[in-house]
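Changelog-linked ticket: NAP example.
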Amino acid sequence: MASVRLLCLFNGKAAGCSRTLARTGCRNVCSSPSRLQSMSAWVIDQYGSSGVLRHTEEITIPTINFAHDVMIKVSAASLNPLDVNMRGGYGAALLNIRRDPLSMLNSFSEFPLILGRDLSGVVVDCGSGVTHFAPGDEVWAAIPPWKQGSLAEYVTLTEYEVSYKPKSLSHIEAASIPYVANTAFSALVNTGGLCRENSSNKRVLITGASGGVGTFSIQLLKAWGAHVTVTCSQNAEGLVRGLGADEVVDYTSGDVAEKLEVMQRFDVILDNVGGDTEEWAIGLLKPWSGAKYVTLVSPLLLNTDSMGLLDGTLNAGLTLHNKAFQNITSSGVFYRWAFYAPDGPALDEVSRLVDAGKILPVVEAQFPFTQVPQAFQKLEQGHARGKTVVKVAEDDECIQTAESEQGVQVTSQQN
Ligand SMILES: NC(=O)c1ccc[n+]([C@@H]2O[C@H](COP(=O)([O-])OP(=O)(O)OC[C@H]3O[C@@H](n4cnc5c(N)ncnc54)[C@H](OP(=O)(O)O)[C@@H]3O)[C@@H](O)[C@H]2O)c1
């Protein structure tokens, strides 16, 4: 059986072949000879601009090392602003500690580094402790930034980080969702205190709603019955209204704060823009009612990069504490920073919402695996309208849309 599995893994048709192995049980943890095999990936060997991206066929395949590991053949990946930032070295100080605490003594041990945080693909192997998945399962996941990314043929994650892909989506469509979904859950649920049961009477403002996190968050909140107001450019109004936004404020013409001040106050604000947004937006929250301002744009990683781990963390902690203290004492409003967190169970819930037609993928652009640098360039131009996706596996039968196509596709359900 072991040799059959290896054959399946490396003949480029792992998805179909391993289907026949599904439910036959996962193998024991072992140091597999497949460690000697290599895979295709886009890597960086140093931080910098788009020129540092390098395609190679010689990256060691990340095999099963721990009992709860799940090895996945990647069909599609997507890009996030974090990938562009990480390519330039953003967050390296803190992320390297997560990757390997001893890396403090060994600079550049993270290279060759594989970027790409989202994946949709097929399980090809599991550790002995994996109970939830089996080879052949179609899955999706958002990869923590301290792990090797999805711009590669194979990725190995823990089973907690992985979830069954929605049946109604192609891999290209599915790859557009996990990282923004886990980020939105972390921000809106874990930090903002919203959930399916308590959202129906809540008024939520989302700034920067036309990008990856925003287009997902609108749909999640509408699925939970919240009233959603958003800010975006005028030319994104059709997109966000189509996703369910109740009120849309164009931030490119006139004073956005003035337009929002005439509205009823909000219970939660999700800030995807940062900068001076909090200066005018916090006053839009209902005072003394447990309202929360949740921003995804914090100085934590920039601080640790520029000041070092200790000073950077202390400085960020002090900033957060001061702002939180000032807002709670002056207006009874909670001020919080939110961060992406891996969360397979949250993706399970998203998967159900997608298959129920409540959440649609928003794919703005897609690129073949040969054009990863072009995909980065697209992202760097800004003005995202949903997500940029990379088709990793050429033999992916589920991919239904054309390569390198650009233009927002809000895909409706196929079943
Ligand atoms: N803390 C974390 O763990 C975490 C995780 C994920 C994302 N983030 C951060 O959260 C932010 C949003 O992420 P994303 O993936 O959604 O980014 P994105 O896909 O690049 O979307 C950003 C959107 O904001 C719009 N925008 C820019 N300036 C705006 C303004 N002043 N008012 C309203 N809209 C504006 C952009 O379109 P136009 O320029 O055309 O208006 C774009 O559609 C990014 O800063 C990202 O780095 C943080």
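Closing comment: Example verified and attached. The chain has two domains: 2-178, 193-337. The longest strand covers residues 69-79.
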